Amino acid sequence: MEQFTRTRNSVLFLAVSLAAMGVGQLLLSFGRDFINAQQPIDWAHWLILIGAVGGAISISEFGHGRLGRIARSLVVIGAVGFGGMVAIDLLLWTLPAEPVLDDALSAALDAPQVAVPFLWVGPALFFIGLALVAVEWLRLSVWAAGMFIVGTVLSGVGAATGVDGI
Fold this sequence. Notes:
Blueprint: H1 2-28, H2 32-36, H3 43-58, H4 66-94, H5 99-110, H6 112-137, H7 142-161
Helix pairs in contact: 1-3, 3-4, 4-6, 6-7
């Protein structure tokens, strides 16, 4: 019974964490002017960061097989990627908009050393890890695991492409 309660609490914590990420992504979809108007706190990016960290923490209860251990590692690496992305975005949010500064930041973001781990691959690994955890859930509930896999894939595609509404 204790294991069931811990698992249920972990699922609830994961759901809340992913919901925080979803709200953060929704806030981002309103555009840069909306994000800049959130002074003094950039709620969108903080919610994404809280969701990524919460997802990495809650996932420790799941995935006891080989696939689950790989999935947990991917989720943690992805959460670090989200942390880097949020740090970059918060830095951009706090700096004044000047043409020279904009050019320097654009060059940094175009550099593969920054863009690949923090904007493309890192966040994608988070969602891939979550989907792999759900694959282990298939034996418990095909319907719930299928919904979770579809949701993580759509969230990953939305985060990677920036398409509003996904």
